[in-house]
Amino acid sequence: MTIVFNDGGYGLIEWKQQDHYGESAFIKFGNPDLVKFAESMGLKGYRIEKSADLIPTLKDALVQEVPAVIDCPV
After folding, report:
1. Domain boundaries in the chain?
2. DSSP states along 47-65
3. Class of domain 2-73
4. Which residues, 6+ apart, have CB-to-CB distance to 34 below 8 Å?
5. How far does CA 11 lie from the centroid of its chain?
């Protein structure tokens, strides 16, 4: 199982750039639909929509017979 903590960019690098330079550059990007991407390779894909979904999704992902990818927005 893989959990992707998805912030749509390099959030930690942005924070470091802001701290050091007072601005950030080249840290935002778009991601593919990670659920569809996982499914295209025969994996099980999940997307967390609200925090209450995390634990049930983890439980479900752990019993799958194929690897799972969980897209978790942060």
Report:
1. 2-73
2. E--SGGGHHHHHHHHHT-S
3. alpha beta
4. 4, 6, 45, 47, 69, 71
5. 12
- The sign of the torsion formed by the CA atoms of 27, 30, 35, 36 equals negative
Reported confidence tier of residue 10, pLDDT bands at 50, 70, 90: confident
51: how many CB neighbours lie within 10 A of its CB?
Answer: 8
Task: Categorize the per-residue pLDDT at 12 as very low, low, confident or very high, splitting at 50, 70 and 90.
Answer: confident
What pTM, to 2 d.p., does this model score?
Answer: 0.81
**pLDDT tens digits along 51-63:** 999 999 999 999 9
Structure tokens at 74: 């942060």
Give me the residues paired with residue 49 across strands.
Answer: none
Q: How far is Cα 35 from Cα 43, in angstroms, rounded to an integer?
A: 9
